[in-house]
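Encode chain A's predicted structure.
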Amino acid sequence: MSENVNGLLLNLRNLGPVRLAAIAGVLAATIGFFVFISTRIATPSYGLLYSDLDTRDSGQIVQKLEALNVPYQLRGNGTEILVPTDQVARLRIAMAESGLPHGGSVGYEIFDKGEALGTSSFVQNVNHLRALEGELARTISSIDLVQAARVHLVLPERELFSREKQEPSASIVIKTRGSDRLGKMQVSAIQHLVAAAVPGLRPGRISIVDSEGNLLARGTDDGSDPGTGGLTTEEMRANYENRLSRSVEDMLERSVGPGKARVEVHADMDFDKLTTSTESFDPDGQVVRSTQTVSETSSSSDGGDQPVTVANNLPDAQANKAATGGQSKNGRNEETTNYEISKTVKSQVREGGVVKRLSVAVLVDGTYTSGADGKKTYQPRSPEELKELETLVRTAIGFDEKRGDSVKVVNLRFITPDEPAAAASADGLLGFSKSDLLKTAEPLALALLGVLVLLLVVKPVVTRMLEAPPGGGAAALPGPEGQRLLTPPPAAVAGALPPPTAVAAAGVPATAAPAGGPLDNIEQMIDISQVEGRVRASSIKKIGEIVDKHPEEAVAIVRSWMYQNA
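Encoded structure for chain A:
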């Protein structure tokens, strides 16, 4: 044991300080590399717990994680929190039980805390307003396209002894997700949502602005419908074109296939506001308005005046009197009928746009057939099929040849990106998901990397450094026998073995003497009678055994002889 230790120390001493320092550096780097691998394998992988957090919510969540002794990582200036992947679901449930995150707004939970006895009505009204604004902001943020929202309400109080009452109003700032934009109908829906939640608030009193400063809805006071009242003529024309193109495109995709039809519509519209009044008479439509009938009858008699006498009072006096007088009778009938001619008074006000001309361009893709090798071949559509599609589009848009409408259907091949390689199924490999496979592959990859570093880096470097220098190859033979026979200086070793000249005189090349072959071959190659008794046959046999055990060290010794002779 002591001889092995002494041999190891002697070998290290012969390497020199430079090689010893290099070996120590390689050893330290190897230890550090394996410490990193073990730390990496032992460290759990982190998954996203929450993102786009408010600084207040982020601080409360971190405080909660520290109380639960859960490791975490912060990214994005504290807006993102990562926790171990296997604890994401459990921690989200635990945070939800605590009401986290709040979403950057305060809702009705502001009243959960007990208020002081001397809290004024002003503070209570402010808290109620904050709670209402926070709840509306949370509701608006629940829309898919909306990432965050802020709501400001103005609820004026009615002054004493005042007959006029100010109406409430609201302003909303919306931040959308990515590059998406809210449509007019979605903006109108947000206006009606807020108006229905605030007493006395009309949709026309709500202004909406996006995060880039674009006005999405005007807070007008005209009481018009916010879905159409705030639109300009250009916006109305664009909405009409988009609606018509979408409807035609959806209809064509049911026949030619999804994504194989593109429709562009240009509408020439007239948005002039016209007021028309029309008054017309119908002579054939006579109607009796009134009827007046007058009937008149009169009679008269002419007998003269007779004095009053006895003769006139006799019975025969009246007959004589009648014979001598005259009588007359008159009658008149008159009827007046008034007629009224039919009259029509029409007043028409046109505010919306009128389509003057439509131009529709339709681009459809061809058909594809798969061959035996799986390669798809493009085939254009027949003229008959294009004619049918054109007829279908004409009917869908309400084609009017008198106003100059035009429809053109063109068949061209669509440029599509190369199809990606077949991906793994949704269930993954052997029932494992992609994340599970990555977790399993990471430690295996690190272990394989460690083995490769040992075999391809550490071992060649250490072997190269442990090689004996040109003048000290004798000290490289390990073991007690090597120390006893080969540790003397090169001169002594040279006396123990036949010199190169003697070997050459025996007809054997100098490099072939220590070739490490069997002992019988060595005895046949060397004639002991020509060595002149300087080395015994037992020493040669002993050296042959050492050469068999340590061929590389034997080659080093021969090389040292060659350097000495040179």
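Residues 148 and 175 are 5 Å apart (CA to CA).
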